[in-house]
Design goal:
alpha/beta; six-stranded parallel β-sheet; 7 helices; globular
């Protein structure tokens, strides 16, 4: 299945223990910096590690649990991770389920978005994402975020570089299969480069989430 991030409709994922569910809920709240929000009335500064919002994280949780419950083979991957929030949630769900076999692939330039190439990808003409300083999050910051959540482990694979350079490397191409692929590269170029490189690795029954599907250029 290929889904926009706001699609919803995932089946309620596995029973899981109350402790597992409470842990995952706490991780989502921490990623959104809402745990102690009521204790900070009037404070406007938010230190969130995810931009997708509560609904987006809830949907991601349901989709990850769906592929786990259905035993869809493969790793979990996000391309375009910002501060790593969605990947942290995926890692937390694997930890809660005791799944030590799947890897979480954290793939990003860690330098922001590329400048658009309108000759090659006309849909990206005049795109300004490369000018947004807040999208430039270092790999050190992302690895630090994983550590803050107690989720730094050998299950987490970091891949640094532009997608047209990294997606065809031996390291990526040696991935046997992908159960869930989340794309959040903001540009059509960044999206199609990933799909061309690893779409064929998505398992039958696997899920593809395109965060930016709401943008007309992604549907070109």
């Amino acid at each position: 299945r290929c889904l926009p991030m706001w699609a919803g409709g995932a089946e309620e994922a596995g029973s899981g223990s109350g402790l597992q569910e409470a842990y995952v809920h706490m991780v989502k709240s921490a990623l959104l910096d809402t745990i102690y929000a009521k204790d900070r009335p009037g404070e406007t500064k938010v230190v969130a590690r995810s931009m997708v919002g509560r609904k987006g994280l809830d949907d991601l949780e349901a989709f990850v649990k769906e592929v786990l419950d259905k035993n869809v083979p493969g790793d979990l991957m996000e391309t375009g991770v910002w501060q790593g929030g969605s990947c942290i949630l995926m890692a937390a769900i694997l930890k809660a389920r005791g799944d030590r076999d799947r890897k979480v692939w954290v793939v990003d330039s860690f330098e922001g978005c590329p400048k658009p190439d309108p000759e090659m990808y006309p849909a990206d003409n005049n795109d300004q994402h490369h000018t947004y300083d807040n999208l430039r999050v270092s790999i050190h910051k992302v690895t630090s975020n994983f550590a803050d959540f107690g989720l730094a482990s050998s299950q987490i694979e970091y891949v640094k570089g532009w997608f047209h350079d990294t997606m065809y490397t031996e390291r990526i191409q040696n991935i046997e299969s992908i159960a869930l692929l989340r794309l959040d590269g903001d540009l059509y170029q960044s999206t199609i480069e990933v799909l061309r490189a690893v779409y064929y690795k998505v398992s039958i029954g696997g899920i593809i989430i395109i965060d930016d599907w709401r943008l007309d250029k992604m549907q070109a």
